[in-house]
Design brief:
Length: about 200
């Protein structure tokens, strides 16, 4: 993997993307939302063997979905628990005139993963167990939710077809069942591609 990643073909950069965000989200963007260069690599890894239906679990403001949609022909569906972030995400999707992305305000336990063949996870449930990392008080968070979401995600991914792909960024990767194997890993080890065998 190259040491420096080129800017997206669309010309979208961190600075240009952040200009579209409200000030409170600009301040936390670096901590809570996927960097564009990482989103580009993740998109490339998830879609390198063809067009996909990609599920972004814990989509936030839709940054990964937007970057992926602008840099591939795949369809990107984000699931986000906070209504305020879903509104921002879909407003941005409309602003950028993107046809192949959408973010829904739903709980992950309401989603059937068999509709998808690629998945992106950036520590989606972590806030429930690390209180100082909480974004805001818009939704209830609890240790018990973490276990429930984790178990549901593992079970759903276990039911996915062979060849399904996951890219994880950060975290301990407990969401990934044993039927998936690591096929690529970034130099710093934070970004991984998993494929179901």
């Amino acid at each position: 993997m190259p040491d420096t990643i080129p800017k997206p073909k669309t010309g979208l950069s961190e600075e240009s993307f952040n200009k579209f965000l409200p000030e409170d989200l600009q301040r936390i963007s670096k901590i809570h939302f996927t960097p564009i260069r990482i989103a580009r690599i993740a998109t490339e890894w998830l879609t390198e063997d063809g067009k996909k239906n990609v599920l972004d679990i814990g989509a936030g403001i839709g940054k990964f979905c937007i970057t992926g949609a602008l840099n591939s022909d795949s369809f990107f569906c984000g699931i986000e628990y906070r209504p305020s972030l879903v509104k921002v995400a879909n407003d941005l999707i409309e602003t950028f005139e993107i046809q192949n992305a959408i973010v829904y305000n739903q709980n992950i336990t309401d989603i059937d993963f068999t509709d998808f063949d690629a998945f992106y996870l950036y520590n989606p449930f972590y806030e429930n167990i690390v209180y100082k990392k909480r974004m805001n008080n818009e939704v209830p968070l609890a240790d018990s939710f973490y276990r429930n979401y984790l178990d549901y995600t593992v079970q759903q991914l276990e039911n996915c077809k062979k060849g399904s792909r996951i890219v994880t960024f950060h975290g301990d990767n407990l969401e990934v069942p044993g039927s998936f194997e690591i096929k690529k890993i970034s130099k710093n080890g934070l970004l991984k591609l998993w494929i179901k065998m």
